Input
Amino acid sequence: MANPNSKSWLTQQRIKERKNFRLLDWSKDLKDQGFYRGLPCPYEHTIRDSTHHWCYQCVLKIQTGLCGLDINYVHEDFSHYAVKALEMIDVGNPKECWPVTALDRHGKPKRFAFPDYKQNAKEIAPNKLTLKKIMYTLFWGDTGKEVVTNLPGCTNPTCCNPLHLTTIYNRDATPRKMFNYLDLNRDDRKINLLLNRHLKNYRIEDLLKQEYRPTISAI
Ligand SMILES: [Zn+2]
Ligand SMILES: [Zn+2]
Output
């Protein structure tokens, strides 16, 4: 049985409390369950936690350990920002650190404008996010106010390799060595599918599943 005075037990309890994750009962009112419909995440989900603003479906996904990005399959409002943010990072192979190459005049990693729970793509100017937060949001999911940090084994403090990044939602998952899927190149066939998804009543997730079924069966 767990010793309630041990440090690890206390840490566990704190994480559980801070996680504050609960499954949504779709038959009941969102507000009564501490959720609201807010601004979309890069995957077009809109249900968020009322206090910490994390995206319900993203956090559900993060907890399965799934990590990947297909630049052609993100919400239209985000793709321009996503491409620019990736240009500010030295994207290497999945096992390497990906340091920020865009530095400010003090030599610190630049922050970058990106839509989030409090600013949509059209009202974005004043509120800039760290590139770590942006990469985590694109590859893992939108965790609202939750802080993104580097895993202990990562040796570069500016590293933005999503496999080296963590929040309370994937901290206890075994670190992955590979992405479930990765495509950072523009692909007109895929963009066409994205832009026409509403005609077929597809969600972005459906397009990802269709493209990467063998490697993302966990969604
Ligand atoms: Zn989401
Ligand atoms: Zn790293």
Summary: Residues 7-19 form the longest helix (13 residues). The radius of gyration is 18 Å. Residues 97, 154, 156, 159, 161, 164 surround zinc ion (ligand 2) (CB under 6 Å).
